[in-house]
Specification:
The complex is a heterodimer. Chain A has helices at 6-13, 15-36, 41-53, 56-82, 90-112, 116-142, 146-164, 200-217, 219-229, 231-236, 242-269, 280-290, 297-319, 325-347, 351-355. By secondary structure, chain A is mostly helical. In chain A, helix 9 (219-229) packs across helix 11. Chain B is mostly helical. Chain B contains 12 helices and 2 strands. In chain B, strands 1-2 form a two-stranded antiparallel sheet. The longest helix of chain B has 30 residues, at 2-31. The radius of gyration of chain B is 19 Å and the shape is globular. The chains are: A mainly alpha, B mainly alpha.
Chain lengths: 356, 306
């Protein structure tokens, strides 16, 4: 037990090598998927790079715009997973938040203009938290697996928005299944004039830094970590009210995802419709795992996967590669991470195995 | 009125069939201690396999290819969860994400973007003589596609296997108390791998039945949460084959309600009916999880030894 296992040494001393290997593996897997599906790998990759980082426009108006909801939902998943809550429901919470924000700006926007925005963001967060409250309550009261219940809530949210945009919130001409466009005064201000980058990105960055600080340096953050790591020890040794911590982090997680929805409506789509999110809430799981559940690193992984989505959109436009490729890559990333971690853990002898 | 009742019951059994097949398979892997949240991915793989197979011209090829695709997806899950011992739930989520994406990609690569015009052979209802003449429930239970009769056989087979055979006892032992099973000479990892592959075959068959006996074509994401609903059905059915089949019927009824209400011309928004099975899942999980008892070792990662 004195010498560290080789795997642990590799991880501790050469993180750059691990990251480099990892990047190469993902590129290779991506090329493999493209080749198997019969696409021109070279042309597809060129389009991917152009769309993600080929110009300053691609960076600020495609990559960073897409990174914004990914950072917020990625934080939502990170905090939940850290507390031992498997919230797969960021997608539904995002939609609930988007519906809440849309309702506010459509009702109050014409009168109060931009002053309606703070309230819209508050209602977006509240909507997301409310959507998380159902699975949180089911978990606490009945022990229902939140993996299943949050996914069910995603479908309910999708049909809920489907109802809203064909019913109470439908645009005045009653032709399209979407809400009216929100008043120009209630668009989120742009961060850089002449681009599509809105202050939602700054909000996401602040949220990530704040979450990093809270998790690392505050008592609440300690309780969150200890509940996630070992709930029984948290209750007995650290005197933590495990149920209360879980409920709070579940609601906070929902609020962050809801905020992502509010930001998306007021910063990007300017209207509510069913396909508002191309699965940001599911991508968020890859964002969180890629960041190793570190709130600060969520910024990096969020921008990386935002670049991937922006690049994939360009690949679809220019090389005809279907956008769903992104979810294949995300799945590969998640499997690569958990697989690599399992292999590393396996090589390091565990106390229980040493004892027997 | 009775005509409507018959139509409703027929639709109930028809829509319950893929759910029951998938849930039955999942119940077997859960009895061995593995919860496969990737079931959704297994089903969509089965859907895609069935379309590719049926393109060869026969329903049988569709069924076989659907089962094969489901087993292939489950094999990925086995490699990660049983061999590498990764977290079952995160692995399952990734499998679902990957399978939904990959089938969408391959579908466009193989069939182009004009998949709507795709025509494949489908399974017509086969009436069983005498039995289908029973008033009301006769046509509902015995005027269905052949895959539904396969389901009836599978329910009986699973019951017999789990409660009357040595192998079934070994499987349940692994799910309840793997250390004891291992002490008795059973290899838990092998049993789990086998159980997950069986659930993959059943999930693939479920996907194939969705394509061949219900929808008649493939659409991206057509599994539409059925894998997750099936997991809820397992809990409601208390991990027993007959219970699972009855629970699936309840969900089939919830889906069939929309046909009934559509034909009745109600003013209620149709999204309400579309959302009903998912809401029902939540209610059922709340009622089912608190009273039923899951296999004790469900989801455990620390058992090893091939």
């Amino acid at each position: 037990m004195t010498a560290p296992a080789p795997a642990a040494r590799l991880r501790a001393n050469n993180p750059m090598i691990v990251i480099a290997l990892f990047a190469v593996a993902i590129v290779a897997l991506l090329a493999g998927v493209l080749a198997v599906s019969g696409f021109d790998v070279g042309a597809s990759f060129a389009a991917l790079l152009r769309g993600a980082a080929g110009s300053s426009y691609a960076v600020h108006s495609a990559t960073l715009v897409r990174a914004t909801p990914l950072i917020l939902t990625g934080l939502a998943v990170t905090l939940a997973f850290k507390g031992g809550i498997l919230n797969i429901g960021a997608e539904g919470q995002l939609l609930a938040g988007a519906a809440g924000a849309t309702t506010v700006v459509l009702t109050l926007g014409p009168t109060y203009g931009g002053w309606a925005l703070p309230l819209a963001m508050a209602l977006a967060a509240l909507g997301g938290a409310a959507w998380a409250l159902v699975p949180a309550w089911l978990r606490q009261r009945f022990g229902v697996l939140e993996v299943i219940s949050t996914i069910m809530m995603n479908f309910v949210a999708l049909y809920g928005v489907g109802y809203l945009v064909r019913g109470p919130l439908q645009e005045p001409s009653r032709i399209y299944p979407q809400s009216a466009s929100i008043p120009a005064a209630t668009h989120l201000p742009l961060l850089l004039p002449g681009t599509r980058l809105h202050i939602g990105f700054a909000l996401a960055v602040v949220a990530a830094l704040l979450a990093w600080y809270v998790v690392r340096a505050t008592a609440a953050g300690f309780r969150l970590r200890v509940v996630g790591a070992n709930p029984r020890a948290a209750a007995s040794a650290a005197q933590v009210d495990v149920a209360a911590v879980r409920l709070r982090v579940f609601l906070l997680s929902g609020a962050l995802a809801g905020l992502a929805g509010g930001v998306e409506v007021t910063g990007v789509t300017y209207a509510l419709y069913e396909n508002l999110s191309p699965g940001y809430g599911y991508t968020a799981i890859a964002v969180a795992l890629l960041a190793g559940l570190h709130p600060g690193l969520v910024l990096v992984s969020g921008i990386f996967l935002g670049a991937l989505e922006a690049g994939a959109a360009a690949m679809q436009r220019e090389a005809g590669v279907p956008l769903v490729l992104v979810s294949v890559v995300q799945a590969l990333i998640i499997l690569a991470i958990i697989g690599a971690r399992a292999l590393l853990d396996r090589r390091a002898p565990r106390a229980a195995e040493v004892g027997t | 009125m009775s005509e409507q009742a018959v139509a409703f019951l027929e639709a109930t059994v028809r829509t319950a069939t893929p759910l029951a097949l998938a849930a039955l398979g999942e119940s077997i892997s859960e009895r061995a201690g593995v919860i496969n949240v990737g079931l959704e991915g297994v089903i969509i793989a089965g859907c895609f396999g069935a379309v590719v197979g049926a393109q060869q011209g026969s329903v049988t090829a569709g069924l076989v290819a659907g089962v094969a695709a489901g087993v292939a997806a489950a094999l990925v899950f086995v490699c990660f969860v049983v061999w590498l011992r990764t977290d079952q739930i995160i692995t399952g989520t990734a499998l679902t994400l990957g399978a939904l994406g990959l089938t969408g990609m391959l579908y466009r690569a193989v069939f182009g973007t004009t998949g709507a015009a795709l025509s494949i052979p489908t399974m017509r209802p086969v009436a069983i003589p005498v039995l289908s003449q029973i008033p009301i429930i006769g046509p509902a239970l015995f005027r269905q596609a052949a895959v539904t009769y396969l389901l009836y056989a599978a329910v009986g087979g699973a019951w017999w296997f789990l409660s009357r055979t040595h192998a079934g006892l070994a499987l349940r032992a692994v799910g309840e108390y793997p250390e004891a099973a291992q002490a008795a000479g059973i290899r838990p990892a092998r049993v789990q791998a086998g159980a997950v592959l069986v659930s993959g075959a059943m999930g693939g068959l479920a996907g194939a039945s969705l394509v061949l006996a219900q929808v008649g074509t493939f659409a991206e994401g057509m599994s539409a949460g059925r894998g997750f609903i099936a997991i809820a059905i397992v809990a409601l059915g208390r991990w027993s084959p007959v219970g699972v089949a009855l629970a699936a019927l309840l969900f089939g009824a919830a889906s069939a309600l929309q046909f009934l209400f559509q034909s009745a011309g109600t003013q209620l928004p149709y999204q309400l009916f579309l959302a009903l099975p998912y809401v029902l899942t939540l209610v059922v999980l709340a009622a089912g999880t608190s009273r039923g008892r899951a296999p004790a070792a469900l989801g455990r990662r620390d058992l090893g030894v091939w």
